[in-house]
Amino acid sequence: MKHAVWLMMVGGLMAMGDEARILHPSFASPALGKEKPYSVVLPEGYEADANRRWPVLFLLHGRGRNERSLIEDETCRRALLAAPFVTILPAGDDGWYLDSPCLPADRYATYLAELIAHCDRTYRLSPRRRLRALSGWSMGGYGCTLYATHHPNEFGVLAPMIGLLDFPREGLPEGQTYAVPRERFGTDPDLWRTWNPLLRAEALRGMKILVQTGTTAFDRTMNENFSRQLRLLGISHTLEKREGGHIFAVVQASVPRVTQFVEQSFKENEMALRATWMREAKYGVFIHFLGGGDGWNGEVDAFDAAGFARDCHAAGAAYAVLTLGQNSGYYCAPNATYDRLTGHQPGERCSNRDLPADVARELAVYGIRLMLYLPSRSPQRDAEAMQKLADVNEQQPAPQEFTKNWSAIIQEWSERYGNQVHGWWFDGSYSRAGWDDLSQPYSWRTWAAACRAGNADSVLAFNPGTRRDLAFASLTDEQDYAAGEQNRFEVTPESHPCPPSMVWQILCHMGTMWGRTDGPQLDDAAMIAYVRQVNAQGGAVTFEMGHRLGRLHEAHLRQLRAVAAAIR
Questions:
Q1: How many domains are contained in the chain?
Q2: Whole-number Å distance between alpha carbons of 1 and 273
Q3: Which of these, 496, 516, 497, 500, lies nearest to 508 by C-alpha position?
Q4: Whose CA is closest to 168, among 151, 150, 148, 183?
Q5: Model confidence over 537-551: pLDDT tens digits?
Q6: How crowded is residue 488: how many other Cβ atoms within 10 Å of its Cβ?
Q7: Mean pLDDT across the stretch 440-450?
Q8: pLDDT, mean over the chain
Q9: Is residue 190 over pLDDT 80?
């Protein structure tokens, strides 16, 4: 990688110290088959704390411009240097930040993904979605918005400027259109629709969005159309108009507003609870899928992932929790680390089929989040595995070597699933003494870092049991929501509150006990009233449901259909 510090700037010399914070490196892009430059603006204090990971803004230039255009402008440069986050400025040429169907060598969407991955490896950037932003102007406004629709789990803030946000298309009013570059987009209007950000706007739900256009800009109607589409979808955003047309003077006025908006959004997102989405989700489902023995692979292969997802959708569930395994030492997903540590061959204890991956894919069709269940400790009915993982009885403190091993096993799953898995629920966190000493090499921190290795926004709960004075308590500051295990639908956020740093959640079985296909415990009217009460007090309800190879027990599903009709 080549680094060169640019000292002379348009408008004169930069202040001493500022020049060291502006970099012009390059990296080799396999997608484009060449070395590509890019620019970086580091925040003040970046070098002072070698352990801090910084929020980041990726800012894409317009057509006919380059990665240095904003840095060469005094107004924009000043705004970027004052920003308390890292700014990355790619060199997108005139490639529209897409993989062209007509120019096979022009793979600019793939290039952008390569650059982002390269910067994540090279600079201390936060992996948290909520602390990552996209912006750009003109072609870059189009590019950043289209990229955000394809990667909604990677960014939490979007701020296009004079972007072509209802494009490519025909039929806009005279003076409010732009000729489609057919050499890059092709000539088929039906194909153009796949690259129109407005038609993919649903994917932006949950982001903080600022849209800026000019009062006389040809893109004004496109941005107004985009804003109207967001309103129809119920997606909160801000549309602002700057005096002027589709000109760089409007960009100059817009960049300081972008840095202000991104800074404020990052501040709000840092203060927001990771598990806020769970409160907004209202309720979800949980199933125990456990077993073992010679027939385990056959059972995992027979699990109906698509049917499970359809049933969850019919139930109105916003999230679903699947058990990876429990005390038998058999798991429904491959894990090479577990096999290596316990001395098993692939498929002996960890199934050949990767069930969570299949379930995540099917749930995603309906916008349902997947979470995973694991015990806090090694499989307590597999003495050989306990010994090889260096664990002891779960009522005793976890040994350091065990926490190291268990974290490595969890990290393999976490990295494999990435943003497909949104959280974890850990059972049997009965003895905290082995994790509470944060000065030890292996603690809650190690464990939580493993869970979030693939998704920095994964929410975590650690279950100390059903005692009501413990079930809604925080065991560690790494915990995002209450474990909430109960045997009756009785307690509420007001009767048994959790700390303000967590989201309140109850996990309770619909049948008479865990895994039973009887009941449900309450009649429909009582269950609807209970869910409404919990939701009104800021909590979520997780229903443990009976099932047969993924197909939810009909009596339980019927009741949740009634809940969905009343709540959703």
A1: 2
A2: 37
A3: 516
A4: 183
A5: 999 999 999 999 999
A6: 11
A7: 89
A8: 94
A9: yes
Backbone angle region of 343, left / alpha / beta, with phi > 0 → left and psi within -120 to 50 → alpha = left
Q: Would residue 3 count as lying in a domain? A: no
Query: Do 307 and 411 sit in the same domain of this protein?
Result: yes
CATH number at 24 reads: 3.40.50.1820
Alpha helices in 151-283 (DSSP H): 182-185, 189-192, 220-232, 248-271, 276-281
pLDDT of residue 440: 84
Domain extent at residue 76: 8-271
Q: How far apart are CA 332 and CA 311, in angstroms?
A: 20
Q: What are phi and psi of 282, to 5 degrees?
A: 80, -55
Instruction: Supply 244's token pair.
Output: 């002027």
**Residues 253, 341 within the same domain:** no
Is the residue at 2 inside a domain?
Answer: no
**75 contacts 105 by C-beta, under 8 angstroms:** no
Q: How far apart are CA 386 and CA 403, in angstroms?
A: 12
Query: Do both 258 and 296 map to the same domain?
Result: no
The verdict on 231 and 295 lying in the same domain is no
Record the pTM: 0.64
Whole-number pLDDT of residue 282: 97
Q: Is the peptide bond before 520 cis (omega within 30 degrees of 0)?
A: yes
* Overall average pLDDT of the 119-142 stretch: 94
Give 271's pLDDT tier (boundaries 50, 70, 90): low
128 and 249 co-located in one domain: yes
64-69: average pLDDT: 97
**Res 459 pLDDT > 70:** yes
Residues 334-342, mean pLDDT to the nearest whole number = 98
- pLDDT tens-digit readout, 193-227: 999 999 999 999 889 999 999 999 999 999 999 99
Q: Is residue 123 domain-shared with residue 248, that is, in the same domain?
A: yes
- Give the integer Cα–Cα distance in Å for 453 and 470: 28
Would you place residue 42 in the very low, low, confident or very high pLDDT band (cuts 50, 70, 90)? very high
- 318 within a domain of the structure (yes/no): yes
Tokens for 488, please give them: 């009756």
Q: What is the mean pLDDT of residues 76-101?
A: 97
In the chain, % of residues over pLDDT 90: 88
Q: Which amino acid is at 509?
A: H
Q: Which H or E run includes 321?
A: strand 319-323
Element (H, E) at 317: none
Q: Residue 487: how many CA atoms within 13 Å on its side-chain side?
A: 6
* Cβ atoms within 10 Å, residue 383: 11
C-alpha closest to that of 423 among 279, 234, 266: 279
Q: Are residues 287 and 261 in the same domain?
A: no
Q: Nearest to residue 141, comparing CAs of 210, 193, 241?
A: 210
Q: Which of 271, 300, 319 is the last residue of a domain?
A: 271
Q: Record the tokens describing residue 46, joined without a space.
A: 């970046």
CATH code assigned at 284: 3.20.20.80
The CA-based dihedral angle spanning residues 6, 7, 10, 13, taken in that order and rounded to the nearest 10 degrees: 160
The reply to whether 193 and 287 lie within a common domain is: no
Closest to 457 in 3D by CA, of 210, 158, 204, 155: 155
| Domain termination site, one of 271, 303, 320 | 271
Angle at 2 between CA 44 and CA 82, to 5 degrees: 15
